[in-house]
Structure formats: C-alpha cells, structure tokens
Amino acid sequence: MIPGSIIVDLAAEKGGNCEMTKPGEFRLYKKVSS
Prior knowledge:
Elements: E1 28-29, E2 32-33
Antiparallel strand pairs: 1-2
C-alpha cells in the first residue's frame, strides 16, 4: 500500500481480517493506518 493509505477492518471485533487489527485501537504501521 502507498503511504497514507487507511485500512478499515469491519470484522475487527471478531478477530479482524488484517494482521495488525486490534479492536478499538488506531494503529500506524509503515505509514499505513488501520
């Protein structure tokens, strides 16, 4: 992904679809937000 991209994981409360997803948290990993 390009820097500044945002991931919205709609399944975050049930474990998520992205490895970096944590329910209720804003995360920044290599300039990509989730």
